[in-house]
Amino acid sequence: MINPDTAKQLLTIVNRIERLLEERKAINEDIQGVYAEAKSNGFDVPALKEVIKLRSKDPKEVEEAEFMVDTYMNALGA
After folding, report:
1. Within 10 A of 44 (CB to CB), how many other CB atoms are there?
2. Predicted confidence (pLDDT) per residue in 51-78, tens digit
């Protein structure tokens, strides 16, 4: 059996997580709205998502990944 103080702490943690999940849901909806706006303005959404993904990475990591893709493409004759 969980003692009352531990149960209270558990409830606080669960409530905080639930609140954060709701906030994340709202943020995700906002992000989807921005992507819809970008699309309606003629931007390519998959390319935009790739740009955002690349900007979040370390530049050295991006450079290494691009080098490997180029190497593989050259090996395939493409």
Report:
1. 11
2. 999 999 999 999 999 999 999 999 999 8
